[in-house]
Amino acid sequence: MRHALTLAEKARQQDEVPVGALIVQDNRIIGEGWNQPIQSHDPSAHAEMQAIRAAGWALQNYRLINTTLYITLEPCAMCTGAIIHARIGRIVFGAYDEKTGAAGSAFDLLQSEKHNHRVEVCGGVLEDDCRNLLQDFFRYKRQLHKNKK
Fold first, then answer.
1. Which letter does DSSP use for residue 30 in this model?
2. Residue 31, strand partner residues
3. Run of H or E including 54
4. pLDDT exceeds 70 at position 149
5. Which residues fall within 8 angstroms of residue 22, CB to CB, at 6 or more apart?
6. Is 48 a catalytic residue?
7. pTM of this prediction exceeds 0.85
8. Tens digits of per-residue pLDDT, 89-143?
């Protein structure tokens, strides 16, 4: 999760919402990413999606069997869909997202019995560090906006 926080910091430096993600298989990082939707003009360029794409290329497979995805923020509905389709076995996330989190907070898409794949979920890892990074970023953005008025 510490490496995911480092990746989230890259997003912050690029003025993106600071979320980082990495995918591990057999104790080896096979994909990583950070939020880039603003700079890439791509609403799907969330950290998880970037990591999933990189891992798919690394494995030359769209199925990411026996992998763990580490994310600094609970994934949204779009990202949980990709997690399920990629057959990622486990996700570990830091901060809970009560508004749009789809791994148990606002929604619980990963445990739905309608899917033929189940994902093990572990939330709250380094939660304070992950949450503080996000809160500091949005506090700074609000202050900038306030100063422009």
1. E
2. 23
3. helix 47-59
4. no
5. 3, 4, 7, 29, 31, 32, 33, 51, 69, 70
6. yes
7. yes
8. 999 999 999 999 999 899 999 988 888 888 999 999 999 999 999 999 999 988 8
Q: How many other CB atoms sit within 10 Å of the CB of residue 146? A: 8
The CA–CA distances, whole Å, from 64 to 6, 69, 77, 133 equal 23, 10, 19, 29
The one-letter amino acid code at 18 reads P
Structure tokens at 130: 């992950």
- Give the DSSP letter of residue 46: -
59: its two tokens? 């494995």
Among candidate residues 16, 32, 48, 74, the one labeled active-site is 48
Query: Residue 17 is encoded by which pair of tokens?
Result: 């919402």
User: CB–CB of 20/38 below 8 Å?
Assistant: no
